[in-house]
Structures are given as C-alpha cells and as structure tokens.
Automatic annotation (TrEMBL):
Residue ranges of domain GGDEF in the record: 250-383
E.C. designation(s): 2.7.7.65
Name of this protein: diguanylate cyclase
Keyword list, A-Z: Membrane, Transmembrane, Transmembrane helix
Top-level division of the source organism's lineage: Bacteria
NCBIfam families, alphabetized: GGDEF (TIGR00254)
C-alpha cells in the first residue's frame, strides 16, 4: 500500500511542532539548557517538512529543498548540542551552525539546476554524524547513566545507521531505483523520522525528570561539600547493614576519623582552605574503601566508615591505608603546601555483641586515645572490640 507523501510530511511537521511545544512547556518548571536545545531541534525540523510537502506538489519549490536539508542537519546537530548540555558541556556555535549552512548553501553553488535530490549526500552525512555523536553523548554521560539515556542512545544510533544505509543505497543505486525507493525512499525515511521524534520527545522529557529526581536524592543523602554520604543516610544504611550481618553470620568494624588541628587550619588559612582539605581527605579516604563499605561526613571535620565483614585485623590494615592516604593529601595555601593528618578510632564487633550506637561510642573512646597519643595514628577500642594489630600500635 502506497502512503501519500505530502500527508506524511504534514503529519511529521505537526508531530514535530507538538514535540517542540512540549519541551517549551516543560522548561517553565525546569529551565534545563538541554531541554532548550532539544526544543529548538524539533522547531527547526518543522520547516523542512513543509518545504518538502510544497516541493512535492509544486516543482518550483524544489529549489527550496537544500534549505530544508540544512535545517534538518541543524536539527540533528542540536540533538548533539542538547546531549552535551545535559552533561554540562559547552559547544561552539560554529560546530553546529557551520555544517547546516554548508548543507544548505553548497547545492546552490555545485548543482544547477536544482532537482529533488540535490544536496542529499550532505543531508544524509550530517544526520549520520550528528545522530551518532548525540547517541555517544547519551551512552557516556557525565555522571550516572539513566534508563532514558540508553533509550535515546539506541534510538539516535538507530537513526544514524538508517541514514548511513540510505546514503550508501543512494550512491549505489540512485534515487530512482525501485530498491532504493522501497527501503530508503522518502516514505520510509519520513516514517523513520516520525518514530524517532515520538520516542525522543517522551524519552527526553523523562530523562530530564530522572536527572532532577537523582539530584534531589543526591541532595538528601550526600554531603554537599565532600560528596560522601551525610550522617542521616549513613546511619540508615549502617543500621540496615548491621541487621543484615546477623543473617550472614559475619562481623563488622567501624572507623571514626577526626582531622588533626582542623580548627587551627581554618583560623590560619581560612574556611575556603579548610573546605579544600575536607574535600581532599574525603576523596582520599573513599579510594581506600571497598564497594560494600559505607563512608560519611559525620559532622564538621569528623568522618565515619563502616566496614561490613571486616575483622579487627582487617580494620587495622584499612586504617593504616587511610592514614597514609590522608598524609598524601596536599592543599596549596598562600603560605605554601598544607598536608593534613587524621586520628582514627576503631571498633569491631561480632554479630551479637554491639549495635551502631555502641560501636560509635567505643570508636569515639579509641579516637580520644589516638589524639592523646600524639595524633596521626589509629587506636583500637580495646577489650570488647579487640585491639589493633601490632603494625598499628605505634602508628
């Protein structure tokens, strides 16, 4: 069954326009730069559909086809620009305007008289490149990859592959060959574009909401300065981990860290330097911990780490590693490099012996002993939490 091409073009224009309007409305509550670029991409794509519909009805409008092609390339490039904006990347204007202008202008200079398919290789090449670039940006975002990142990456990569095959068939067979018309002609391409528009529009809006929800969750569960867990989320997860430890018949250990002379750092160098120290220490300690371990900023210059399944000896080894890592942190100040140190209190328990609150109290007592013992060292909780291995007794 043959579909009316003019009708397809007009339907495409209406669907594209509605998608652009959807983004503009969605931006009112969420002024995300990516949504602005993607909304522009859909609005750019309205005019080509109208131009192609007019050219199908009146041959004199064929001369406008290259302009429509340039707008299609611009729309595809804006998908890429929007995907980059979602990852907080800036894109030079020339990177997306230049190819669109070339796709629109070169046919007027190189192909006279203009015909229906004038400039098609430039159109197809632009769509192939920019759709694939947009797909790669979604597949490898800055930050966590959301479900709708994957949907958009697959959809745009699929569109890129379709236009690549279309370009190859155009060169191999020519636009008048029945094989080209059946698989890659204007009807097939318009249907493909319609599907991409529908999938993309809903997935783009859904992605924006996914990212917003993730940001809210991040704000609710993470410390804003260091990016590690905040105290309330650490407590919630640690209490659950300790309950689960009983089912796994395993123990656990806790490290309580307090940066040495942190008040002096703030008073001498200012709070901005103090913040750099906190962030640097948090990053260094995080690298010392395993995937199951929980780590938080417990308050001020204090940090806490729960080590599920850790014995006192294992906790001691981890503490030694943390001490070395913190000594390796360096923050530049007007007075020169600053190298912080930390003191660590360790408590460890078997399944039946101790809950989180008691574990924290034992670690706090051990931390106090580490401070009295000269700082930049770790101390175990003594009886009831097992002593540290000998390698740390004089750390």
């Amino acid at each position: 069954m043959s579909l009316d091409l003019t009708t397809l073009y007009l339907v495409s224009a209406m669907v594209t326009g509605m998608s652009g309007l959807l983004f503009l409305l969605d931006m009112r509550g969420r002024p995300d730069p990516a949504l602005r670029w993607w909304g522009l991409a859909f609005l750019f794509a309205i005019t080509p559909a109208v131009i192609y519909a007019l050219a199908g009805q009146a041959p004199e409008f064929v001369v406008l086809n290259p302009i429509g092609n340039g707008l299609v390339v611009a729309g595809s490039s804006l998908l890429w620009v929007g995907a980059r904006a979602f990852s907080h990347k800036r894109t030079p204007v020339v990177a997306w305007v230049g190819p669109a202008v070339l796709a629109a202008a070169l046919p007027f200079a190189l192909e006279q008289p203009l015909v229906t398919w004038s400039g098609f290789p430039l159109l197809a090449g632009g769509v192939v490149v920019f759709n694939m670039l947009a797909a790669l940006e979604c597949w490898r975002p800055v930050g966590p990859r959301m479900r709708n990142h994957v949907v958009l990456a697959v959809a745009w990569a699929g569109g890129s592959v379709f236009y690549l095959f279309r370009l190859v068939a155009f060169v191999a067979f020519g636009p008048d060959d029945p094989r080209f018309a059946l698989a890659f002609g204007s009807e097939a391409a318009t249907i493909c574009v319609l599907l991409l528009i529908v999938i993309s529009s809903f997935s783009m809006v859904a992605l924006g909401k996914e990212v917003s929800e993730a940001a809210l969750k991040q704000a609710a569960t993470r410390d804003g300065l260091t990016g590690v867990l905040n105290r309330s989320e650490f407590t919630r997860l640690a209490e659950r981990e300790i309950r689960d430890a009983g089912e796994r018949d395993e123990g656990y250990a806790l490290l309580l860290l307090d940066l040495d002379h942190f008040k002096r750092i703030n008073d001498t160098h200012g709070h901005a330097i103090g913040d750099e120290v906190l962030a640097g220490v948090a990053t260094a300690v995080s690298r010392c911990l395993g995937p199951r371990d929980l780590f938080c900023r417990y308050g001020g210059e204090e940090f806490a780490a729960l080590l599920p399944g850790a014995t006192p000896d294992v906790a001691g080894v981890v503490a030694e590693r943390v001490l070395r890592a913190v000594r390796g942190v360096m923050v530049w100040t007007p007075a020169g490099p600053l190298r912080p140190t930390t003191s660590i209190g360790i408590s460890a328990a078997n399944v039946e012996s101790i809950d989180l609150g008691a574990l924290m109290r034992v670690a706090d007592i051990a931390l106090y002993r580490a401070k009295r013992g000269g700082r930049d060292r770790a101390e175990g909780g003594g009886e009831g939490a097992e002593a540290l291995p000998k390698t740390l007794q004089n750390a």
